[in-house]
């Protein structure tokens, strides 16, 4: 990875680059992970290191915000993982799911943003995905469309049809026919 590629990772707060390299700010004598949310330093004040030990040996101390000395320290990952598990458990009951997510004590917009960062889907998109996957299983086991829709937490049959088509590309009846023909 070139210095310019590393710099782009720093500017973008690229979490996927954490652990691959570290950057240090000459003026503060602090080193950080690429995903650090601190103010972006001036490019001419930044130097890069491949390991945290190289940065420490060069006289830099770890950032207290991103904790590059504790590479496993990632509070966002824990919250996102808990959110995903809550969706997997409470997908069929929106009210219970909302209450459980509120117990995490994280702003909903922030949670949605970090969830998207980790899983590539918003919470709503992931919830729809989980519900449709469960509905697909129910339909293949012989459940009626209406029963599957409400059992999986959809508020109406029309929202079920819309979500099902978004996720699978097919209406539920078409999906059932295709799956039966493929047996």
TrEMBL record:
The keyword Ribonucleoprotein does not apply. Its cofactor is Zn(2+). Signal peptide: none annotated. GO terms for molecular function: DNA-binding transcription factor activity; methyltransferase activity; sequence-specific DNA binding; zinc ion binding. It comes from the Bacteria. Keywords: Activator, DNA damage, DNA repair, DNA-binding, Metal-binding, Methyltransferase, Transcription, Transcription regulation, Transferase, Zinc. InterPro entries: Ada-like_dom_sf, Ada_DNA_repair_Zn-bd, Homeodomain-like_sf, HTH_AraC, HTH_AraC-typ_CS, Me-P-triester_DNA_alkyl-Trfase. GO terms for biological process: DNA repair; methylation. This is AraC family transcriptional regulator, regulatory protein of adaptative response / methylphosphotriester-DNA alkyltransferase methyltransferase. It comes from Romboutsia lituseburensis DSM 797.
């Amino acid at each position: 990875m070139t210095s310019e590629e590393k710099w782009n990772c720093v500017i973008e707060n690229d979490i996927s680059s954490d652990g691959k390299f570290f950057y240090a700010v000459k003026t503060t004598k602090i080193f950080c992970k690429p995903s650090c949310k601190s103010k972006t330093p001036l490019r001419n004040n930044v130097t890069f290191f491949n390991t945290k030990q190289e940065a420490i040996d060069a006289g830099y101390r770890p950032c207290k915000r991103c904790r590059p000395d504790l590479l496993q320290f990632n509070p966002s990952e824990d919250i996102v993982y808990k959110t995903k598990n809550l969706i997997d458990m409470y997908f069929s009951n929106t009210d219970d799911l909302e209450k459980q997510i509120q117990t995490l004590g994280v702003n909903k917009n922030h949670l949605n943003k970090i969830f998207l960062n980790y899983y590539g889907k918003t919470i709503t998109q992931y919830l729809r995905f989980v519900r449709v996957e469960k509905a697909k299983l129910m339909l293949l086991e012989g459940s009626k469309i209406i029963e599957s829709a409400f059992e999986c937490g959809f508020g109406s049959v029309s929202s079920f049809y819309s979500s099902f088509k978004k996720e699978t590309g097919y209406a539920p009846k078409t999906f059932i026919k295709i799956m039966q023909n493929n047996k």
